[in-house]
Amino acid sequence: MVIAQFIDIFLMFLLVAGALTVLTVRNLFVATMMLGIVSFVMALVFISLDAVDVAFTEAAVGAGISTVLYIGTLALVGSEEKAGIKIAPAPMAICLAVGAVLVYATYQMPSYGNADNPVHTHVAPRYIQVSPTEIGVPNMVTSVLSSYRGFDTFGETTVVFTAGIGVLLILSQRRRRKPGEEEEKPAARNGHGRNLLGIGSDHDLIPHVIAKLLIPFILLFALYVQFHGDYGPGGGFQAGVIFAAGFILYALIFGLQLAQRVLSQNAVLYLIAFGVLLYGGVGVVGILLGGNFLDYNVLSSDPVSGQHLGILLIELGVGITVAAAMLAIYYAFVGRADPVSKLPD
Amino acid sequence: MVFLSTHLPILTVVIPLLSAAVCALLKGKNLPWALTTIISAISFLMSIQLLLEVNVSGPISYELGSWAPPWGIEYLVDPLNAFLLLIISGISTGVLLYARDSIASEVPEKQQGLFYAAYLLALTGMLGICITGDAFNIFVFLEIMSLSSYVLIAAGAPQDKRALTAAYQYLIIGTVGATFFLIGVGLLYVMTGTLNLADIASRFSEIEDTRPIRAAVGFLVVGIVIKLALFPFHVWLPNGYTYAPSVVTAFFAGTATKVSVYLLIRFIYTVFGGDYSFGIIDLADILLPLAVIGFLSMSAVAIFQKNIKRLLAYSSVAQLGYMVLGISLASESGLTASLVHVFNHAIVKTGLFLSVGCMFYAVGSVYLKDLEGIGQRMPITTFGFVLGGLGLIGVPLTPGFISKWYLILAALEKGSYLGYALVTAVLVSSLLAVIYIWRVVEVAYFRSPPEGTEKAEAPLSMLVPCWIFILGSFYFGIDTTINVGFAEAATSFLLGGS
Amino acid sequence: MYFSYFNYWICIILLMIGLYTVMSRSNLVKKLIGLSLFQISVFLFYISMGKISGGTAPIVVEALEGAPEPVYSNPLPHVLILTAIVVGVATTALGLSLVVRIKEAFGTIDEDEILELESEEDK
C-alpha cells in the first residue's frame, strides 16, 4: 500500500511539474508535447483511482488526438511564442482567488476515499448493485453511460457532431483577398511541415513497412474495443478515436489522396450524421414501441436482451460519429495546408 | 394524440437535433433553410402546447430511458421553463422566416447546409438547457449551444475577418465559464451524491451551511454570469454580436443570454431556494451593484459606438443588467419584472437587429458613417428601427415601458433610500438609451444621403418578418395578458412551490 | 490516509496553472493549451471524489471462493468525465481551427498584435 501511495504522489508531482513547464516554455511544440505528457500521466493517475475507462479515453484523446491536432495547427501557424515570460498581476490575483476559494471548500469536504460519503451512498449504489442484473453488462461505466444516462451520451455525440461540422464550416471558408495582396506561402509547404500534415512521402521505406504492419492491428483493436466495451474498459468513443488514429496514420504515411480514396470527405460527412441519426433513431424506436425516448427495455421481449441490443446500437452510433468527426477534422486541417488542391484562389 | 402529448418534452428537443444531422447533408440554399424553418416552427407549436399544459395541469416530468430520477435523467417542464421554451422557439422561428435572403447574401452557398445545421444545434442546446432537470445534462447542452454559437459567429468571417477573433475570444471565455459551472456541479455532487436538480434541492437544507456548498454557489453563479455577459464579464458579447451574420445576431440577442438568465433564476430559486440565496448568503449584495453599474455604464458606452450592431450589443448588456436587477431584488414583483423583461427585450431587440440586417443587406455596412440619410433610402426599414428604438427606451405603449414599470414598482417596494436610488438609476439609463437611439435617428434622417445613392429597400421576405417583430412588440406593449400573465404564473409557481 | 485532501490540492494547483496560462499568455495556441490544462484539473477533481479506498474498478469480477465481496468505486463520475473529455477535445478542435483561420487572416497569432490590427480596421 505504501508503495502504491508513493507512486500516486510521485505521479501527482509529475503532473504539477509538467503543468509548470507548459506554462513557462516558449516553444509551442514543447508545450504541446508536455501537455500530451501531462495527459498521459493523468491517465496513469486515473488508473490508480479505478477509473480505467476514463484513463483509456484520456490517453487516446489527451495524449493522442489532441496532440495530433495541436501539431497540425503549429505546422500551419508557426511554433514560437513571441512575448517573453512576464508576470501578469491581474490574472495572477484572479487565479489565487479561485484557488483560495477551492482550498476553503476542501476543508469541509467529505474525506477522500471514505465509503460513507454522500457520493457513494445516495445514487451510486443502485448502479453498482442492480445494474449487472438490470442491464446485464459487467462494466458498470458502460451501463451508466449508455443506459441510465444514455441521454448525456447522446448529447456528447452531438457535441462531437457539432465540432465536426463546425471545423468543416470554419476551415472551408475562402479568404477574401484584397486586390494586389501577395499570396502568402503556408508554413507547411516547406521542410518538415509536409510530412506532419500527411502530404505523404514516396521514399521512406521503413515507415511504409511498419505502417502496413501496424494499421490492420490498430483497426482490429478498434473493433475489439468497440464490441468489448460491455465487458472491459472501452466503448464507442474510445474505439472511434482508435479507428480514426489508424486512418490518420495511413494518411500520414501514404498521403492524403490515397486515404481519401478509401474514405472521401463527403463520405466522412455522411458518416458523422449517420452516427447521430443511428443513436437518435434507437431512441425514437423506443418511443414507437411504447417506451420513453432511449428506453431499451422495449426493444426486445426480454428487457435484458433489449438493453444489450440498445447499448450495442448506440455504442456503434457513437463510434461511427466519433471516428468520422475526428477524420473530418483531420482532413480539414490538412486540406488547409495542401498546396495543390485547396489553397484559396 | 395521446402519443404525441406524453412525449412532447423530449420531442421538442430531439426533433431539431436529429434534423440538424439531416440538414448538414443538404445541398443548395433553399432546402436547408426550408427544413430549418419548418422544424423550428414545429418546436414552437410544441412549446405553445407545453406551456398551456403546464399552466393548466402542473409540471410534467419525463423520464429519459424510462429510468426514474435520480438514477436517470429527467426532463421537468414547469411554468418557468415552458415560458422560456416559448420565447426561444418563437424568436428562432421568426428569425428564420427572415433568414433566407439575408443568409444567402452573407454565407457562401456551399456552406449553407452546415450553417443551418449549426443553427439547429444552437436551438437544440438552448431548448435542452431550459427543459432538463439534471445538473450535468445542463452542462452537456450548454456546450452544444456554445460550440454551435462559436461556429455561427465565425460564419461572419467572409464579411469581416474580426468575426474569427470574436469567436475565438468567446470560445475561451465561454469555456472558462462552462468549466466553472462544471466545478460548481461537482461540488454540489460531492455533498449531495446526486445530479438531479429537484433531488439536490430536497437535500440542500441539511448541508447548506458548509463551505463546499458556499463555494459551489460561487462557482455556479460566476459560471452562469460569465455566460450571461453581466458586467464585468461582458467583453465577449459586443464583438460576437457585431461580427456575426445579421441573422445570428438577431437570434442570439433574443435567446442566448436569456437562457443564462433562466439558469440563474433556476439555481437561485429552485436549487438553493430564495431563503438561502438572499437570506443566509446574500447574493443580492454582489448581483445588485453589478447590475446597476452594468446598465448605467453600458448604456453610456453604447452612445459612443460607430457601428450600429455594436451599439445595440452594448445596449443588450445594459438590458441584461435590468433583468439581473429584477432577480436581485429578491421579491415576487422583482422576479416578475425580470421575466417580463426577458420576453419583451427578446422581441424588441430581435426586431431591431433584423432591421439593422436589412440595412446591411442593402448598404453592405452598418457603420453610422455609411448610413447617412438611410431614412430616405430605406424609409420602411428605418421607420421600423425607430419604432423598435422607442420600445428599447421604454416609451408608453411599448413593451419596454411595461417591463420598466414593473421594475420600478419592484424597486420601490425595497423601501426608501435604496428604492429611490434604483428608480433614479433606471431612469438615467433610459435617458441614455434616448441618446443612443437618437444618434442613429440623427444620422438616418438629418443627414443627406451620399451623392448617387438611390432608394433601395430590402426584399419583402426580410421586411415582413422584421415588421412582424416590430408590430408584435407593440401588441405586447398594449395587451399584456401573454407576457405578464405567463411571467406571473412562473413567478408564483417558483415562489409558491419552494 | 496520509493526506486526506492531497488529490484535491493537486487539482487546485493544476487548475490555477491552467487558468493563469489562459489569462496571461497572448499567444492564441498557448491559451488553448492552458484551457486544456484547466479542464484536465477538473477531470481529476471528479475522478478523485468517485474513489473508495481499497476499492476496485467498477467492472464486475467473480469473487473467489471465501474472498470478501469486492468494493467498487463509484462509476458515475467516470461517466461524467468521459463526456467532459469529449467536450474538451471538441472545444480544442474548434479553437484550433479558428487559430488557423486567424493566422491566415491577420498574419499573426499574437493577441496583442491582432488587437492593433483590429483597431486599424475601424478607421
From TrEMBL, chain A:
It comes from the Bacteria. Keywords: Cell membrane, Membrane, Transmembrane, Transmembrane helix. Coiled coil: none annotated. Residues 95-182 form the MrpA C-terminal/MbhE domain. It is a multi-pass membrane protein. The keyword RNA-binding does not apply. Residues 206-327 form the Na+/H+ antiporter MnhB subunit-related protein domain. The chain crosses the membrane at residues 6-23, 28-49, 55-77, 89-107, 153-171, 205-225, 237-256, 268-289, 309-333. It is found in: Cell membrane. InterPro entries: CPA3_antiporter_subunitB, MnhB, MrpA_C/MbhD, MrpA_C/MbhE, Nuo/plastoQ_OxRdtase_6_NuoJ. Residues 14-75 form the MrpA C-terminal/MbhD domain. Pfam families: MbhD, MbhE, MnhB. Belongs to the CPA3 antiporters (TC 2.A.63) subunit B family. This is Na(+)/H(+) antiporter subunit B. It comes from Sneathiella marina.
UniProtKB/TrEMBL annotation, chain B:
InterPro entries: CPA3_Na-H_Antiporter_D (IPR050586), ND/Mrp_TM (IPR001750). Keywords: Cell membrane, Membrane, Transmembrane, Transmembrane helix. It comes from the Bacteria. It is a multi-pass membrane protein. The chain crosses the membrane at residues 6-26, 33-52, 80-101, 113-132, 138-158, 170-192, 212-231, 243-265, 277-304, 311-330, 350-368, 380-397, 417-438, 458-478. Residues 134-426 form the NADH:quinone oxidoreductase/Mrp antiporter transmembrane domain. Pfam families: Proton_antipo_M. It is found in: Cell membrane; Membrane. Its main location: membrane. The keyword Cell membrane applies. Signal peptide: none annotated. Belongs to the CPA3 antiporters (TC 2.A.63) subunit D family. This is Monovalent cation/H+ antiporter subunit D family protein. It comes from Sneathiella marina. The lineage of its organism: Bacteria, Pseudomonadati, Pseudomonadota, Alphaproteobacteria, Sneathiellales.
From TrEMBL, chain C:
Its main location: membrane. Signal peptide: none annotated. It is a multi-pass membrane protein. The chain crosses the membrane at residues 6-23, 79-100. Keywords: Cell membrane, Membrane, Transmembrane, Transmembrane helix. It is found in: Cell membrane. The keyword Membrane applies. NCBIfam families: PRK07375.1-6 (NF005621), PRK07375.2-3 (NF005624). Belongs to the CPA3 antiporters (TC 2.A.63) subunit C family. This is Cation:proton antiporter subunit C. It comes from Sneathiella marina.
